[in-house]
Amino acid sequence: MNTSGSSLHSIELVLLLLLLFVAGFAWLAQRLKVPYPIVLVIAGLVLGFVPGIPRVSLNPELIFLVVLPPLLYAAAWVTSWRDFVENFISIGSLAIGLVAFTVFGVAVAVPLFFAGFDWRIGFVLGAAVAPTDAIAATSIAKRVGLPKRIVDVLEGESLLNDATGLLALEFGTAIVVYGRTPSFVSGIGRFVYLGGIGVAIGIVLAIIVEWLERRIDDANIEITISIFVPYAAYLAAEAIHASGVLAVVAAGLFLGGRSSRFFSPSVRLQANAVWSSVTFILNGLVFVLIGLQLPYVLSGIRESSLPKLIGVGALFTAFLIALRLAWTFPSAYFANFMHSRIQHREQAVPNARGLFVVGWTGMRGVIALAAAISLPRTLSNGDAFPHRSLIIFLTFSVILVTLVLQGLTLPALIRALGLGGYSQPHTREEEARRLVLEQALAYLEKRREEDKPEFAGTYDDLAQHYRQRLASLNGEAEEDVSPEQYHRYLSLSREMLEAERNAALELRNQGRIDNEIARELEEELDLSETRLRSAIKHRALQG
Question: I want to staple 172 with a disulfide (CB 3.0 to 4.6 A). Which of 123, 396, 401, 495 is the partner?
Fold first, then answer.
C-alpha cells in the first residue's frame, strides 16, 4: 500500500511539474513571439540534463491512446469540410504520396549511409519519420498571413498522414520481426480496409452523437460527450484493426461542420473554452516530453560518440528535408491537373515560392517519436530488434532539427519570399460581416411590416444599431452618426460594461446578491464585452 501511495505521489508531482513547465515556457514563448512548441521542446531538452529533475520516459501507448485522439479530433473539428474536399487531391498527394515516397526513399538510401542497415530497417525508419506535425507550422503560417490554401493543405496533411505512416510502420515491423513481406495486393487491401472501415466507424458514431446532441441542451453533459467521442471512435476502430486515426478525423469533420445546428450558443462558448484548454495542455505536455527524452535516447546508444551521432542525425534530417522538397513541386502540378480533370475547375498552382514553403514545413512531432519507441525490442526468434536505439535517435534528431531549425526560420523565410500579409481572408471576413448585417436588416424590416404599429420605436432603435455597424464596415457615416461618434459609442459602451461589472461585484461583496447570481451577471457582461472587443478590433483594422 505504501509503495503504491508513494508511486502515485511521484506521478502527481511529475505531472504538476510538467504543467508548471508548460505554463511558464508557453508564457516565455508568447513574450519572445516564438511558437510555443519550439520553446517547449528546447526547454525540455535543457531540463532533461538538470540534476534532480525526475526522469520521464515517453510511453507510446499513452500517446496513441490518451493524447492522439483528442488532438486529432480538435483539429478536425475546426477544419472546414468544404476546404478539405476542395484541396483533397493536394492533401492526398502529401498525406499518402509523400509518405510512400519518404518510406521507400529512406529504405533505398539508408543502407548507403549507415553500415549494418538493410532496406527492411530503412523501411521501418522511413515509416516512423514520415508523419508530420503541423501544429507549429500552421500557427506560424496563420500569424504571418500565409495564403489560406497553403494553410488548408498543411492542416489536412497533418490530419491524414498519421494513418498512412502508422500503416507503413505496421508493414515494416512485420517484415523485420516475422520475415514476412506483404504482397502488393494484400497491402492495398489492408489500406482500403484500414481507411474505409475507420472512416465508416467515425461517421456512424458521429451520426449517433448528433442525434443525441439535438435532444440535449446541457453544457456539462454535451462537453462530456464531446470528450467521449474521440476515444470511442479510436478504440472502436482499433478493436477491429481499422484506423483509429481516420475514425477520429471522420467524426471530427462530420460533427464540427454540424455543431452550429446542435450546440446552443452558451454550450458552444463553454465547449470551445474547454477544448482550447485541453488541446493547449496536451500539446504543451507532449512537446516538453519530446525534449525530456534525449537522455533516454542517448542511453541506448553506446557504439558511437556524441559528435558522430550529431553528424549522422544532421545528415539524415537534411536527406528527409530534400525528399520532401523533391516531392512537393511535381506533386503540386499533378494535383492541379487532377483538379481540372476530376473537379472540372481550373485552380492556380502555387508559385515556386509557395511550394518551397510547403516543402519547408515538414516538421515532425510526438507521433514520430512514439512510433519509433513502440518498436518491439526482440524479433520472433528472440534476437534483438536490429538498430532499434539508432532508429529512435535518428527519429529524435529529425524532430528536434525540423521543429527548431525549420520552425524558427519559417517566419523569416515567408517574409523573405514575399508571402506574408496575405489579405484575402480579411477581405472575405469583411464581405461576410456585411452580408450578415444586410440580411439581418432585411429580416428586421420584414418583421416590422408583420408586427403592431406600437412597436415601431423598438424597430427603429434596432435598425439604427445595425445601420451604424453596417456604415462602419462600409467606411461610411450615417446621416447623423459620424465615424468619430461611432468610435465614441464603442468606447463608452466598454466603459459602461466595466461599470456594470463593478456594480455587480460590489453587490456581491455587500451580500445583497449571492455568488451564483453574480456569476450569471458576469457571464452576460463577458459575452457582451467579447462582442464589443471584436467590433473595436475590426474598427482598428479599418484604420
Answer: 123
